[in-house]
């Protein structure tokens, strides 16, 4: 009897274990909850091919179109004038910039001129006797000879005999010696070649100036040029006289310029060509940094989009029946933020902003552009 009871308890225990195990297994096979599919909303745009104006950005510093570096060709003491030789000082055309003391050299010039005068006066009796037909013109020349003025040009020789006679007396060589001295005397005064302003002064009044010494810089502040480097791709597109818009760094001021010159050679290192933009404005200063926008060309049947929308394989995403797809395109120009594309059919719906994690076949929903 005891064995029967124990056997019955064992059977019940086994049955209970099987039932509990079955319940545990059934509880693990419950179906997982179905997650709701998220459809991203994207910004789109409809393609409409037009003529895109390609604008090439460039930048550089302004330099005066007319500038002169002042050097001394003679030696002497810098004499003070009506204006101080200081940066920022304005001078009119023909006004003396620098006057160097030339009293000693002036005396030697006057002595040479006096010797020339005496040499001509000494031959006048011989001219009266041997060359009476040319005596009058040499007499007129001698009468008009003024030591305080520039030496006048010698009379024209009318015959070989006259030429031999005048040259043999050393008058021609004396004349050119005087003209050489007068030419050097003019270098003691440096005058302004144009109306402008002194931007650099390296000497002061009273100081000793030596031959070959740099004295300063003088510019015309009314006209400036900016040198810019442009890709060789647009070397044939730039034309002299083409209008250019320039801006300062803050884009608070706009200036109008024009292409004044284009270099005929390409830099072998950078493969760029140098263009010079001329600009006039009273508010401009030398050394000012400006940005220029050059109208290089017009590309027909093209669109312009953000660069980050172009894939590495020269493709862009399009939206077709709320599904993302790609289409091949032809880039024709890249700027810092934009790219100009061709071969995109009109009416194609493209992305206006990049979508993170986008892939072909991805389901999207176009946002209301309004």
Automatic annotation (TrEMBL):
Domain Multidrug resistance protein MdtA-like barrel-sandwich hybrid: 67-215
Pfam families listed in its UniProt record: Beta-barrel_RND_2, BSH_RND
Annotated ranges, domain CusB-like beta-barrel: 227-297
A GO molecular-function annotation: efflux transmembrane transporter activity
CC terms in the record's Gene Ontology section: efflux pump complex
Name recorded for this polypeptide: RND transporter
């Amino acid at each position: 009897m005891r064995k029967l009871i124990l056997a019955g308890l064992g059977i019940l225990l086994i049955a209970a274990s099987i039932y509990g195990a079955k319940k545990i297994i059934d509880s693990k096979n419950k179906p997982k909850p179905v997650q709701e599919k998220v459809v991203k909303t994207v910004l789109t745009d409809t393609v409409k091919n037009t003529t895109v104006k390609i604008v090439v950005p460039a930048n550089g510093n302004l330099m005066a179109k007319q500038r002169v570096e002042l050097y001394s060709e003679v030696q002497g003491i810098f004499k003070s004038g009506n204006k101080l030789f200081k940066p920022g000082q304005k001078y009119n055309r023909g006004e003396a910039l620098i006057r160097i003391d030339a009293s000693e050299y002036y005396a030697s010039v006057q002595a040479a001129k006096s010797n020339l005068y005496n040499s001509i006066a000494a031959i006048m009796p011989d001219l009266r006797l041997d060359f009476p037909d040319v005596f009058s013109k040499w007499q007129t020349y001698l009468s008009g000879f003024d030591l305080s003025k520039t030496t006048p040009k010698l009379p024209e020789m009318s015959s070989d005999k006259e030429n031999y006679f005048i040259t043999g007396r050393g008058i021609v060589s004396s004349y050119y010696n005087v003209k050489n001295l007068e030419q050097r005397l003019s270098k003691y005064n440096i005058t302004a070649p144009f109306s402008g302003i002194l931007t650099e002064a390296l000497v002061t009044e009273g100081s000793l100036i030596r031959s070959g010494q740099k004295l300063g810089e003088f510019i015309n502040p009314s006209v400036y040029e900016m040198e810019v480097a442009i890709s060789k791709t647009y070397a044939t597109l730039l034309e002299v006289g083409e209008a250019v818009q320039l801006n300062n760094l803050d884009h608070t001021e706009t200036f109008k310029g024009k292409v004044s010159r284009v270099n005929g050679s390409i830099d072998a290192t950078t493969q760029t060509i140098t263009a010079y933009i001329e600009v006039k404005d009273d508010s401009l200063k030398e050394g000012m940094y400006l940005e220029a926008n050059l109208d290089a060309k017009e590309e027909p049947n093209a669109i312009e989009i953000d660069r980050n929308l172009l894939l590495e394989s020269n493709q862009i995403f399009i939206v077709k029946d709320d599904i993302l797809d790609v289409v091949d395109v032809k880039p024709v120009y890249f700027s810092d933020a934009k790219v100009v594309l061709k071969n995109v059919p009109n009416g194609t719906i493209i992305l206006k902003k990049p979508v993170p994690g986008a892939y072909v076949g991805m389901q999207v929903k176009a946002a209301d552009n309004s």
